[in-house]
Design goal:
The protein is 29% helix and 17% strand. By secondary structure, the chain is of the alpha/beta class. A hairpin with a 5-residue loop joins strand 8 and strand 9. Helix 1 packs parallel to helix 2 and helix 3 runs parallel beside helix 5. The structure holds S-adenosylmethionine (SAM) and iron/sulfur cluster.
């Protein structure tokens, strides 16, 4: 399909990928993501499901090819399957792909419905396969339902990618077993470095484990070969020479990925952020409520002019404030 007016930012980057946060709420409180007493947005400020679908359609009309539903925890939002269906209708008609990122706690209930809505791939966050450690990292989570959710997703025909945040002193010894476990089950695996987003109780420098270190840990056992694959985001891919397994490494702090960035994010309250690590934004909710869907189109053009060249994350300084005040759960990871 040809798009007469694609979304192109001031640096010539074409925007084809949108992450939609459908809620800032979550049933977990992962230590690196949000504090135990996280305050959530009052409900009237949150977009309705219809408003989220309308915003998704405005992006699709401008040539966006991939949409990811995220949060917070997207599967705690009531009516999530209705929303997935409303957006899923566009798959193959402008949209190449609708995906979802989840903590997996509710996945067993929703896996089949997500597949029926047109979703074919899910990312599930899993930082540990040890029940006690899992509880310590997520603070409110239990491992067993997540593992059941992952199995249900697979049974429903969804491709599963595991996201594992590398946490110094917490899960280094699970990195190699996680790689083997994912290979045995046919799951993709991506490692993520902690990013300085939002306030949490701990100093993130205490948990910061550079992925160069993760690679070093793995290379004591297997041969890793870099590949040229890119998805327009911060992930870089390596292959395990012995097995062909693909591993993703998301290293926003140690690697500059911004020059090929193809994505923007919309929060659950309708703020369109042009960069995960910057404040540049356009408010879509009130515009939509006051002027209707037609007003969104011009707002997307205004937003393109605001997309910054890149982020400036730094995590090295102990005790430094987070690079941006909002957590990943607000902007939509
Ligand atoms: N609740 C869902 C989940 O956990 O998959 C979706 C939202 S969560 C914000 C998306 C991803 O961001 C998860 O893989 C999580 O581990 C990661 N994440 C959250 N805060 C982060 C941070 N400060 N640094 C790095 N990754 C983070
Ligand atoms: Fe919730 Fe996901 Fe943040 Fe964990 S990482 S607290 S599951 S939003």
């Amino acid at each position: 399909m040809a798009f007469p007016r694609p979304l192109v930012d001031g640096f010539g980057r074409r925007i084809t990928y949108v992450r939609l946060s459908v809620t800032d709420r979550c049933d977990f409180r992962c230590i690196y993501c949000m504090p135990l007493d996280q305050r959530f947005v009052p409900r009237p400020e949150v977009l309705t499901l219809e408003e989220i679908a309308t915003i998704a359609e405005a992006f699709i009309a401008r040539g966006v090819r991939r949409i990811r539903l995220t949060g917070g925890e997207p599967l705690v939002r009531r009516g999530i399957l209705d929303l997935a269906q409303a957006i899923g209708r566009h798959v193959g008609r402008g949209l190449d792909e609708l995906t979802l990122t989840t903590n997996g706690s509710q996945l067993a209930r929703f896996a089949e419905g997500l597949y029926r809505a047109g979703i074919r791939r899910v990312n599930v966050s899993l930082d540990s396969r040890d029940p006690e450690r899992f509880a310590r990292i997520t603070r409110r989570g239990r491992l067993a339902p997540v593992l059941e959710g992952i199995a249900a997703a697979r049974a429903a025909g969804l491709r599963v990618k595991i996201n594992m945040v590398a946490l110094k002193g917490l899960n280094e010894d699970e990195i190699l077993p996680m790689m083997h476990w994912c290979a045995a089950h046919g799951f993709d695996l991506t490692f993520i470095e902690t990013m300085p987003l939002g306030w949490v109780e701990e100093d993130r420098t205490d948990r910061y484990l550079p992925l160069t270190e993760v690679r070093r840990l793995l290379e004591a056992h297997v041969t890793l070969v870099p590949t040229a694959e890119r998805t327009g985001g911060p992930a870089r891919y390596w292959r395990v020479a012995e097995t062909g397994q693909r591993l993703g490494f998301i290293t926003p702090l140690t690697h500059n990925f911004c020059e090929t960035c193809n994505r923007v994010r919309v929060t659950a309250t309708g703020t369109l952020y042009m960069c995960l690590g910057q404040e540049d934004r356009v408010e879509l909710r009130d515009l939509l409520r006051q002027k209707g869907p037609a007003a969104l189109d011009a707002a997307l053009d205004r937003a393109m002019a605001l997309k910054p060249r890149g982020h400036d994350f730094v995590i090295e300084r102990r005790g430094a404030p987070p690079a941006v005040k909002r957590s990943m759960s607000v902007t939509g990871g």
